[in-house]
Amino acid sequence: MKSEERKLLWHSVDYWAEVKPESEAVVFGDVRLTWKQVKEKVDLLAEAFVGIGVEKGDRVALLSMACPEFITSYMAASKVGAIWQGISPKFSRDEIYYFLSDSQPKVLLALDHYMNIDLLEMILEFKEKFPFLHEVVIIGDPRGSGLVELNEFLYRRTDNSKKVLDKRISEVNENDEVLLMYTSGSTGKPKGVLHTHRAVMCSAMVESKYMFWDSDSRILLHFPINHVAADVEMGYTAIYSGATIVLMDRFLPEGSLIEIEKEKITHLGQVPAMYLMQMSTSKFRSMDWSSMKVLVWGAYAASERMVKVLSDLSKKYNFLLLTGYGSTEVCGFTTFATPDDPVDLLFSSTGRIVPPYEVKIVDEERKEVPLGKIGEIAFRGPVVMKEYLNNPIATSLVKDNNGWLYTSDLGWVNEQGYLFVCGRKSEMYKTGGENVFPKEIEDVLDMHPSVLMSAVIGVPDSLYGEVGHAFIVPKPGTTINEGDLREYCKRHLSGFKIPRRFDIRPVLPMLATGKIDKMTLRQWIAS
Predict the structure, then answer these.
(1) What is the pLDDT of residue 423?
(2) What is the value of pTM for the model shown?
(3) Nearest-10 crossing angle of helices 438-446, 482-492
(4) Share above pLDDT 90 across residues of the chain, in percent, rounded to a whole number
(5) Nearest to residue 338, comparing CAs of 300, 377, 308, 294?
(6) Which end of the chain is more exposed for a tag (fewer CB within 10 A), N or C?
């Protein structure tokens, strides 16, 4: 197979197994797999899937964190024409119940436990409740539960399974759905986002180009496997590029830095909160970054202070700083910064749209607005989701007949084509008739020398309609009070933008995406 002939996700596994079979593909603790070994495991799992009756379009779910089975089950599902879904064991029982009941997978692969969470009892309960679960496979010890263990499952193939798999492979095409990811649910029940082979392949091709990935890259992946960063931006882009994927089953600020040094990581992608937590460790100050080539952040804008620290590092160790903008619904980044962009653009802008994607800014009637004016960000291109699973009404609300996806994010574009994101439409609030964007206030608060991170929400007020409520996490070893913060804001913000209340907390609730959970912040205030 030639590189340009790759159209389906699993093609990249076969391609690299042929091009460099003995090269390291996946690292997870003491486990090290070559491309040849990854292909062998993918093929065994694909045969096992068709052997138990997995049909084209069926869902295959994995309840796990990042581990080798994340890669092999994802690629095996793509090979048999199934739709793969990752579920984080950090989710609550009710959340996992919702994901499974909505997607109705035919097969569930699951860890028997994660950290101090015993998952087996919950899995057995789901097996009883969900008749659509044809098979449950345990990664670990089934402990006499009667459920099949993964290695046993791999050899449950029938004499006919190879022939069935070969036939199935010929039936799968690039417009078939292959990946199901659920939104964070920050504005209601999570929605299942369906993407095709074509969308994921296109996103990986573009990201590898603009993030400078190649077959010598070594990436660190510690995101939950339900996240677009794991499934596309880093995980599949690494497979597409022939890079080595170093997996961690959780994000640890100091542990991730140790892994970067140990495994000589060349490409690191994180959300800003992760970098900030790493910067709070003593290890960060003694780190050897000499292996690093590209350092990326996404999900939301970084603070000026964070970018300044990383910029100083990049000058010392000669690596690139990049950022971009995207979402689950567009399968990853659609705008990208470039190495030539000045540092001030890295914390204020998310870069420019790149081909084959299009962007426009629209008003409430979805009419395009002039350059420089704030409106809703809309995207079009081959990476736009096919639909929300089981939710045609929600799909029709965000996707029009011309292929435009309306993101509910607010932003503006300057004359040079740079996109500036102001936040979610649902987060903007009005105080005394003035529009206030929380991100602008958060950017100011994050520059305070004693602030590690901040979050601002609008809350009801009898006089002004709404006012700002700011949550602050101080840097370790520092103290800060409301008076200091108010005086600081007075020097940098208009009066109406200054939060009415400053709520200082040791930690803030985080979503699996790495974003601050503002729904929980609202619940804190309500209680």
Answers:
(1) 78
(2) 0.87
(3) 110
(4) 77
(5) 294
(6) C
Q: Which amino acid is at 39?
A: K
Phi–psi pair at 253, nearest 5 degrees: -50, -50
Distance CA 35, CA 248 (A): 19
CA distance 211 to 117: 36
Tell me: the pLDDT tens digits for 241-287? Answer: 999 999 999 999 999 999 999 999 999 999 888 898 899 899 998 99
Say what the pLDDT of residue 186 is: 52
Whether the bond between 356 and the residue before it is cis, its omega within 30 degrees of 0, is yes
Listed residue (110, 151, 115) closest to 130, CA to CA: 110
**H or E element, residue 108:** strand 107-111
pLDDT on residue 347: 83
- What distances in angstroms separate CA 1 from CA 7, 16, 78, 128, 252, one per listed residue? 11, 10, 17, 44, 39
Q: Are strands 192-196 and 387-388 parallel, antiparallel or unpaired?
A: antiparallel
Nearest of 461, 470, 458, 460 to residue 508 by alpha carbon: 470
Tokens coding 134: 């044809």
The amino acid that residue 488 corresponds to is: Y
CA distance 253 to 274: 7
Tokens of 198: 């074509």
Q: Are strands 113-114 and 332-336 parallel, antiparallel or unpaired?
A: unpaired
Q: Is the pLDDT of residue 197 over 90?
A: yes
User: Both tokens of residue 238?
Assistant: 């690494």
Question: What does the pLDDT look like over 100-137, one tens digit per residue?
Answer: 999 999 999 999 999 989 999 999 999 999 999 999 99
Count of Cβ atoms closer than 10 Å to residue 506 Cβ: 8
pLDDT of 518 higher than 70: yes
Confidence of residue 493 (pLDDT cuts 50, 70, 90): confident
C-alpha 236/C-alpha 228 separation (Å) is 10
The 3-state secondary structure of 350-414 reads: CCEECCCCEEEEECCCCCECCCCCCEEEEEECCCCCCEECCCHHHHHHHECCCCCEEEEEEEEEC
Which burial class, exposed, middle or buried, applies to 84 when counting CB atoms under 10 A from its CB (0-12, 13-18, 19+)? buried
Question: Is the pLDDT assigned to residue 159 strictly greater than 80?
Answer: no
Distance (Å, rounded) from C-alpha 181 to C-alpha 191? 8
Q: Distance (Å, rounded) from C-alpha 218 to C-alpha 72?
A: 18
Block residue for tokens 């420089």: 372
Secondary structure element (H or E) that encloses residue 196, with its range: strand 192-196
- The three-state secondary structure class of 198 is helix
